[in-house]
Design brief:
By secondary structure, this protein is α+β, with helices and mostly antiparallel strands. The protein folds into two domains: 204 residues, no CATH class; 150 residues, Oxidoreductase, molybdopterin-binding domain (Sulfite Oxidase, Chain A, domain 2, Alpha-Beta Complex), CATH 3.90.420.10. The protein is built from twelve helices and ten strands. The strands form two sheets. The protein has a five-stranded mixed sheet with strand order 2-1-10-5-6. Strands 3, 4, 7, 8 and 9 form a five-stranded antiparallel sheet that branches. Strand 7 and strand 8 form a beta hairpin. The longest helix is centred in the middle third of the chain and has 32 residues. The chain is elongated, with a radius of gyration of 25 Å. The termini are far apart. The relative contact order is 0.13.
């Protein structure tokens, strides 16, 4: 079958653009809203801390999984939408009146911002940081630019969108038409979206793991859980294994220090909790350790206090984190010593680490050395 230039022209049109655009809009909306949750989970504001719950424990796993899945699904949708309008991008006049200027400007900003967001998002889930900026803050700021450009674009093109969605997909013609149709283009688009999802979503959806051949995280790793940052990269190999190691719990003037053996001698609790990373991967695991609230109580801390976690890792963006009071007092929140029945691997935070529900993996502080009750 030969597809000529005229065939491509016949396949393009507002009917295809509008239908693909609707689903691209849905993907952008889901990605934006779940991205806000991810950002405020990592950089919490007081209003967010007041509403973000600890139940269900898999909540962040779902929202961040949806964020990455919808972002990947948006890629083929954006490609097809750009293909469907490509010749119109070069229509004359280039500038025209105010309405046309707004339309062209919103398209330019939208396309550039979308390409930036999707490309850097893919690089982030692959942990390929070729860029020099801090990903989370730039990605967050650019998300508002994308949404703003989408709103302007829809406002300008709304009459055209309404008309296109009300028209039949195929143009009426008396000529014999051979080759693919616009309906074929849409079916191919849905197939591409489905395929892109299936081959990557296994890092979030366990039953897709074996067929998600392009998922950045397969679920493999020490003790059956992937890692993002190793002990070598964190520079804690010697300090974490030192016989002088102590975990110090502090509440104002009151402090208690524990050796690894003393921590293991305390009452132990096992919880089934997912660890969910901002890159989209998540794994459910069995964690065994001391309920954090018990350690806080041991130094006279109250259930209404936030708790600061300090790692052996040198100071950096996530080596010092604050756990909100709601999470600190939750009985599911542990200072874990074991993972899936085995002593924590050094890359998973030995001698002990935080594991709390509905919290990004980057904030589940590893290689703990100090816990401070915030007064």
């Amino acid at each position: 079958m030969t597809v000529t230039t005229s065939s491509f022209s016949r396949l393009r049109g507002t009917a295809v653009t509008a239908r693909v655009g609707v689903w691209l809009g849905v993907a952008i909306t889901v990605c934006f809203l779940t991205g806000l949750i991810s950002h405020f989970s990592q950089h919490p504001q007081p209003w967010f801390l007041a509403v973000w719950p600890t139940r269900p424990v898999w909540l962040y796993r779902v929202t961040q999984g949806l964020h990455v899945i919808s972002g990947i699904a948006a890629i083929p949708l954006l490609v097809v939408k750009l293909w469907s309008v490509w010749p119109k991008l070069f229509d004359r006049p280039v500038i025209g009146g105010i309405t046309r200027l707004l339309e062209r400007g919103s398209i330019l900003v939208l396309v550039a911002a979308m390409i930036f967001q999707l490309s850097t998002g893919l690089m982030n889930i692959a942990q390929w940081y070729a860029f020099r900026f801090f990903f989370t803050t730039v990605h967050y700021a650019m998300a508002y630019i994308v949404v703003g450009a989408v709103v302007v674009h829809i406002a300008v093109k709304l009459p055209v969108i309404r008309r296109a969605l009300g028209e039949p997909l195929e143009e009426a013609t008396t000529d014999a038409v051979t080759g693919p149709s616009r309906r074929t283009v849409l079916r191919g688009t849905w197939l591409a979206v489905g395929l892109a999802t299936v081959v990557t979503a296994g890092q979030t959806i366990p039953w897709l793991r074996k067929i998600s051949v392009l998922a950045p995280r397969s679920g493999d790793g020490p003790q059956g859980v992937p890692i993002n940052r190793s002990a070598i990269a964190a520079g804690v190999l010697r300090s974490a294994r030192s016989p002088d190691y102590r975990l110090t719990v502090v509440n104002g003037p009151t402090a208690k220090s524990f050796t690894v053996a003393e921590l293991a001698a305390l009452p132990q609790t096992t919880r089934s909790l997912p660890i969910s990373c901002v890159e989209g991967w998540s794994v459910n695991a069995q964690w065994t350790g001391i309920v954090l609230a018990d350690l806080v109580a041991a130094v006279g801390g109250t259930s209404g206090a936030d708790v600061r976690m300090i790692s052996l890792e040198p100071p950096g963006p996530y080596s010092r984190t604050t756990l909100p009071a709601r999470h600190a007092r939750d009985s599911q929140t542990l200072i874990a010593l074991k993972l899936n029945g085995e002593t924590l691997d050094i890359d998973h935070g030995y001698p002990c680490r935080l594991i709390a529900p509905t919290r990004p993996g980057v904030l589940q502080t590893k290689w703990l050395t100090r816990i401070e009750v915030v007064t």
